[in-house]
Amino acid sequence: MNAFSVLRLTAAVPLLLLFLWAQVYWFRLLWRFVGCIQSQNLRRTLRTLMVMGFGFVATVLVATFFVSRRDLVWGLPGTVGLVGLWITTAFVSWVLISLVSGIAFITRRALRPPTRTLDASAPAVHSPILPPLRAQRDEVRLDRRRFVQAATTLAGAIPFGTGAYGFLIGRHNYQVHQVDLPVSGLPPELDGLRIAQLSDIHIGSYMSAAEVRRAVGLANELKPDLAVVTGDFVTGPNDPLESCISELARLQASLGVWGCNGNHEIYAKAQEKAAELFVDHGMKLLREENAEVSWRGGKLNLIGVDYQLGRTRGGRRMIMLARTGALVRRDIPNILLSHNPNSFPRAAELGIELMLTGHTHGGQVRVEILDHDFSPAHFMTPYVAGLYKRPLGCDSTVSDREIPAASSPAPAGLVYVNRGLGTIGAPIRLGVPPEISLLTLRCASKRLTFS
Asked: What is the pTM of this model?
């Protein structure tokens, strides 16, 4: 076991134990609740189902944290999505309940009056004022206890309520994002070229073919010149890849429909099949390939790659886009389709003017607190959603934070991160609606700088 594996294990075990402890909390609560049922047969049946259900949840948690072949987890269509919804909402609810209980405990200790040592030889004092004071103190304690109970109930209920909203409404609220992209070195002839982008379809139990058709219809209404799909057509091996791609074939664009594979095509062992189906439906899936696209006399170089791994399974760091440099052209602008946004620094280093990506789902959940956005995707990438830029030719090992705000006058490379259509893990979206992108290419000034 190498150092990276040890570090990963060290971080994973405490987090896994927290998730499991949250499940223990709810298991004990439900066990007591079921114990109030009068019918012995019904009580026994429900408790048996509870043991089976929580056992399955624990298995999914362990597999998610430690099994590298995630397709073993996603091999049960539909089931794991609901389990993911339960795990997420139950964990957040447990955290909030624990916070409320902890604050109540600290407050109670802080407000507790100091104990007094009484002299046994001192005569007892009988005052008519003491009984009313005791009654008043007891009433305050009762009110405080009721408030804590109400606050705990509310804290526990909020995640389940918001989870239900994200499941029933949020993940179906498709939105179109129209963005102008100032591309360095773009010929005037290509100014105004419109690209429709879809990403992270994840067709399956929580994304039907009809929903994909609806998204494609919204994209077609935008009348794009070029259409791209940046990976994750499915989640696991049992998902209907052919249905997904046949629906994507409905996309209408004069310059054709192009795509690249995502990481879930690896898990589903569907990379080759996806490429074949694209060809069968008159589209093109680019796999370490490039193609020249012409529009109104201008030309651009469209490049596509499979999912770019940052590390091997053994933890060894890998160079992203290691074989892509030979596909980059210097005479015309380059557009790269790469599912993993973390390959953007390397793309900018290679001189690729624009990269289109997905993968993050925008985090699926976004919470704004004191003008700061919090999203789970921040733990996996600095490129969560929307448009980012970086100086072309800049060393990929230099982080964005280390680049001065007013860098050299070198042109900038752009990446646009699509928020995706589908979901993974928990089938919910809160504050991050599914996205159909319409990206319009614009000529950038030669003095465009990174900021």
From this structure: 0.81
